[in-house]
From TrEMBL:
It comes from the Bacteria. It comes from Bacteroides uniformis. This is Phosphatidylinositol phosphodiesterase.
């Protein structure tokens, strides 16, 4: 586990949060679809 692994994991976490954060903050339809 080097610095490259941590950096790629951080970028992946940013992409996932960028995809899911509008769903949590905005549409209730996407939120309920993700919950079910």
């Amino acid at each position: 586990m080097g610095r490259k692994y941590l950096q790629s994991f951080y970028v992946l976490a940013l992409i996932i949060s960028a995809l899911f954060f509008p769903a949590f903050s905005g549409d209730n339809n996407i939120k309920t679809a993700g919950a079910n």
